[in-house]
Amino acid sequence: xxxxxxxxxxxxxxxxxxxxxxxxxxxxxxxxxxxxxxxxxxxxxxxxxxxxxxxxxxxxxxxxxxxxxxxxxxxxxxxxxxxxxxxxxxxxxxxxxxxxxxxxxxxxxxxxxxxxxxxxxxxxxxxxxxxxxxxxxxxxxxxxxxxxxxxxxxxxxxxxxxxxxxxxxxxxxxxxxxxxxxxxxxxxxxxxxxxxxxxxxxxxxxxxxxxxxxxxxxxxxxxxxxxxxxxxxxxxxxxxxxxxxxxxxxxxx
Length: 253
Known about the structure:
This protein is an alpha/beta fold. The chain is about 50% helix and about 10% strand.
């Protein structure tokens, strides 16, 4: 059963984190990668310029094309083909069908994106503070070859007793099995564990359905959870990770 409120600091047995857009700015790297991939074409294409800047194209078109491809595939594990479909659709709808051009843009995007990946500046201080007091776990949706390099780039594994990547585990958030397995490995009960993530469905609803308390890191990238679905609402909401220590009642301790 979902707890009614966040556990008191002395009751917390473990704290679990999401990776993308919670600890690392994945969406920022995707925006910047698209801008780099499109830069040359955008400069000479009135049709693309009419859509706005390359960043606006990501937010207004490309992101939704990728999500549509993911939805059409049944919201399973993320596949590189979703990115290919998004570029093919972007080119076809605004420039005319051109699979070769789409393939060139995919290659540029995949080469550019990793270089733009950054960790949020308040992530390391929070992990160090919480890790000094609680066992920490990481649950990330995505294929191992995509997620592991992000973890390794910032040496994040040193903060966590357990790291679970859905593509390696076999199911993805919001499936309750991935939460339960992580808690078991940490020796923690769901009622005394907290999950911190940015995705209202995968992270917040998934954690709540699994009996954990949930803190929503709302950076404005997702619509708010359905207020009528009380069981899937976060126990607390923050804009930045730096706010979490106070939300957990750790300030002054």
